[in-house]
Write a sequence for this structure.
């Protein structure tokens, strides 16, 4: 038995293995003896120079697949001392009549070698994933320091990854065996330290735990899946794992709360409540209208005078939908009776509509307003208000079955087409929506009243009448 | 509102998006000290939560205020959840702070829709722009986009983001009309077509001129919610297959509908079993890597995947006449059809058998699940015909074994949320 003592790096082993091959030493004849831990200055990936043997002409050349060198470099980083003997045995077989050995994954030596290389790659990957820096701040800026415990000798091999990523920071990764340091321009290594040298906390870590807790979905607990990818051996250096027991404890209760609070009702702390309006199941429009009078599905009823339901013949061919009743309508209890309503009447006449064919209503049936001096100023209804009121509008559409729907203004149009709809872009076109087959959107008549001068009012009015004519044509 | 509170609300609101992938983008680094960050093309999962999902990206919403009212969504206008809104600056700072500590690979930013799709998209793009241009951030960015957003905003999003996605949400137009009446199924797919064209144009232009800006080099993905409607697995998989071929998506994520606070009564009361999601991912894999056609995976008699056995085994049991498959002779396409043989195992078998005839004893070294593989193969010294692969006892045995495994093998499902 021949003992070969060498520095346990790939390059040194490679040199020693070459010499052993020259001497035709069989694997069984060699005891590979590692020199005690390698010194900091020794690079692991020093390409072997062959200066000593290359000059000699009697040296035999050994050809091995490139793949073997790659595999051996990985395995050299493994923590098992037996790896050198395994590598030599494979090298021996490759050079003694089994050149394709590496492709025979079912061979015991090859299978073990691949297993070891995989374990090293895995460790390298997990280090990239699980290093957690903590920031130390002092007079000359900050330094990020991490504590990590790798399974294999991977710190030097892996340091470049952190340089590529964090070159603009200054950092150190401390491990029990080797420590890597980057001062902003240079990478260096020192011997191992214990955990007490690493910082104990970090200003941002609390936010990280907040994130971790809240991105977890308590409705799907899969602890095994988590542990398969994040084995417990890594937990002690991952700050977020401290909250796992609490997350698991609370999960069933959190799911129960989710279930309980489900339903269509929304309640705010100030007592405001929204729910889907309770439309009675009936084919009678007048019964539906009567039921709407006592609607409290959204908080608007509290400050409005009354519900303003739609009006018009039950089998109208055209349904006009506005936003909500205004000051006049709220008092009168009828839609479109104020200045905007007068404007609509005038335009309908000009477009040669038969008023007996038109049903008018609003997306929201209560007046939403805020006081300003002695006046009640119109306020745009919220998405919740509209959602709560929507069943009334759906009932009107279902029971009247108009041939064409005209949306007056963006609230009505967005109720029918969705929030992305832009009246300015698509007005005056015959469109289809899930709520109604034929829909034309246009501006609200009140916008005509707000025009700054006579000229623009006249121009807008004409456009409005044109849009109404599109609807009328579609209804015939 | 303090930052931690906002983070809690807006991370909570983002967790129903399954994707957390950070892989498949171009290689970048900051080794010369300019900017920060790198990507190797391989994603990294920096942590895992007890739901088995990986944490690779800071996945948050810019805001959970939303003018849309999609019934399955926790953030819909009519939901009672607490609302919050980040400033662009806060998201940028949070991303950099997390990145510097090696918590994340980058940012996955989505948002509720406020004011208008364009306004919202502009806010989302502003975050990515600041990260890329001001901070020279070279980590991963995934931006969720909105079908209705203006083309120039999508262009800008694609320039900064590695991946962009639009959620298809549900597998059919009818389902979308029912649960998300304000969304439009066709429009979403048209928007995806356009993104596909942009990605391909940018790639082609760049192969001629490296100075042409990138457009979403990690491609586009989408998500479908499973179990919120009655849609069958066949419908879901057909839709997925269409998205992979027509819109060339990198990934379709399936998200088992999960009970959400304040959910609507139009939704089912119970969540579908998580194993259904798992089976869909397995079927998805069969379509993308194993040469299965979508029509082979389900049958018209059984449009839903069998929850007890995986879809490949189910297919094998329906097609017993092509088995046993000879591991030493059969072509790759056939080996890929053998239950228990993954793509890597198949490659290894093909490599080994050039030099060595495979025997029964060799199989454990390939780490094959023998109980699954053996009834379907022959080796130099073994023939599955000796065992009977006919008869329902075999099937029954698999069902029992597989159901057992399901209890313990949840780990298998995690692969689907991992990195590729």
């Amino acid at each position: 038995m021949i003992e070969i003592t060498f520095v346990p790096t790939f390059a040194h082993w490679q040199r020693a293995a070459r010499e052993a091959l020259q001497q035709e030493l069989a694997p069984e004849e060699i005891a590979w003896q590692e020199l005690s831990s390698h010194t900091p200055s020794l690079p692991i990936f020093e390409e072997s120079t062959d200066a000593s043997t290359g000059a000699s002409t009697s040296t035999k050349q050994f050809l091995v697949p490139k793949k073997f060198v790659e595999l051996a470099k990985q395995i050299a980083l493994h923590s098992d001392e037996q790896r050198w003997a395994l590598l030599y045995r494979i090298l021996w077989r490759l050079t003694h009549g089994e050149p394709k050995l590496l492709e025979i994954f079912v061979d015991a030596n090859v299978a073990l070698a691949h297993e070891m290389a995989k374990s090293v790659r895995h460790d390298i990957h997990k280090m990239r994933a699980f290093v957690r820096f903590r920031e130390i701040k002092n007079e000359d800026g900050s330094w990020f320091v991490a504590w990590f415990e790798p399974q294999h000798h991977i710190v030097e091999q892996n340091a470049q990854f952190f340089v590529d990523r964090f070159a603009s920071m200054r950092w150190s990764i401390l491990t029990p065996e080797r420590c890597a340091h980057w001062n902003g321009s240079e990478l260096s290594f020192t011997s191992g330290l214990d955990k007490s040298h690493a910082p104990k906390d970090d200003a941002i870590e609390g936010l990280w735990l907040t994130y971790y807790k809240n991105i977890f979905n308590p409705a799907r607990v899969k602890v095994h899946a988590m542990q398969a990818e994040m084995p417990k051996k890594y937990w002690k250096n991952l700050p977020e794992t401290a909250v796992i027991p609490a997350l698991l404890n609370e999960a069933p209760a959190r799911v129960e709360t989710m279930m309980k609070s489900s339903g269509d009702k929304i309640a705010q702390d100030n007592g405001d409540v929204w729910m889907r309006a309770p439309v009675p199941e009936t084919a009678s429009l007048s019964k539906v209208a009567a039921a709407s009078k006592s609607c409290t599905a959204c908080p608007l009823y509290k400050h409005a005078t009354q519900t303003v339901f739609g009006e018009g013949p039950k089998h109208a061919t055209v349904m006009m939908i506005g936003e909500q009743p205004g000051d006049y309508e709220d008092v009168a209890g009828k839609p479109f009776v104020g200045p905007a309503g007068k404007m609509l009447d005038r335009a309908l006449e000009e477009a040669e509509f038969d008023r007996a064919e038109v049903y008018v209503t609003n997306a929201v049936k209560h007046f939403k307003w805020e006081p300003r001096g002695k006046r009640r100023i119109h306020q745009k209804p919220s998405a919740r208000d509209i959602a709560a009121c929507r069943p009334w509008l759906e009932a009107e559409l279902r029971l009247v079955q108009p041939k064409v729907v005209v949306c007056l203004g963006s609230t009505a149009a967005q109720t029918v087409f969705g929030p992305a709809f832009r009246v300015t872009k698509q007005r005056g076109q015959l469109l289809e929506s899930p709520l109604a087959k034929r829909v034309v959107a246009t501006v609200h008549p009140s916008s005509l009243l707000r025009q700054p001068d006579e000229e623009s009012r006249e121009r807008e009015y004409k456009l409005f009448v044109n849009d109404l004519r599109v609807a009328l044509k579609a209804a015939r | 509102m303090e930052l931690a509170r906002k983070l809690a609300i807006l991370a909570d609101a983002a967790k129903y998006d399954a994707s957390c992938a950070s892989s498949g983008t171009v290689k970048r680094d900051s080794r010369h000290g300019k900017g920060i960050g790198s990507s190797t093309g391989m994603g990294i999962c920096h942590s895992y939560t007890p739901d088995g999902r990986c944490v690779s990206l800071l996945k948050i919403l810019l805001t959970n205020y939303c003018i849309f009212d999609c019934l399955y969504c926790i953030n819909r206008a009519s939901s009672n959840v607490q609302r919050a809104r980040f400033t662009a600056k806060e998201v940028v700072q949070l991303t950099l702070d997390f990145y510097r500590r090696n918590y994340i690979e980058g940012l996955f930013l989505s948002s509720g829709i406020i004011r208008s799709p364009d306004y919202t998209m502009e806010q989302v793009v502003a975050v990515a722009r600041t990260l890329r241009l001001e901070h020279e951030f070279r980590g991963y960015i995934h931006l969720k986009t909105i079908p209705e957003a203006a083309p120039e905003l999508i262009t800008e999003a694609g320039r900064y983001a590695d991946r962009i996605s639009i959620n298809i949400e549900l597998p059919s137009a009818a389902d979308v009309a029912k649960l998300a009446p304000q969304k439009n199924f066709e429009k979403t797919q048209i928007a995806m077509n356009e993104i596909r064209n942009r990605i391909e144009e940018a790639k082609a232009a760049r192969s001629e001129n490296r100075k042409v800006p990138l457009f979403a080099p990690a491609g586009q993905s989408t998500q479908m919610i499973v179990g919120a409607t009655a849609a069958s697995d066949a419908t879901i998989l057909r839709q997925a297959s269409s998205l992979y071929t027509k819109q060339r998506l990198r990934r379709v994520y399936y998200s088992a509908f999960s009970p959400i606070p304040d959910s609507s009564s139009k939704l089912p009361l119970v969540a579908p079993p998580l194993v259904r999601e798992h089976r869909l991912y397995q079927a998805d894999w069969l379509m993308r890597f194993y040469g299965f056609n979508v029509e082979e995976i389900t049958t018209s008699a059984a449009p839903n995947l069998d929850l007890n056995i995986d879809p490949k085994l189910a297919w094998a049991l329906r097609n017993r006449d092509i088995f046993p498959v000879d591991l030493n002779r059969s072509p790759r396409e056939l080996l890929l059809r053998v239950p228990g043989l993954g793509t890597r195992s198949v490659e290894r078998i093909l490599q080994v058998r050039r030099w060595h005839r495979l025997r029964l004893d060799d199989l454990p070294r390939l780490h094959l699940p023998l109980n699954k593989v053996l009834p379907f193969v022959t080796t130099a010294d073994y023939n599955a015909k000796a065992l009977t692969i006919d008869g329902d006892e075999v099937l029954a045995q698999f069902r029992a074994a597989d159901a057992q495994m399901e209890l313990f093998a949840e780990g298998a499902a995690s692969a689907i949320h991992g990195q590729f």
Q: What stands out?
A: The first strand of chain A starts at residue 2 and ends at 6. The radius of gyration of chain A is 40 Å. The first helix of chain A runs from residue 10 to 22. The mean pLDDT of chain A is 89.
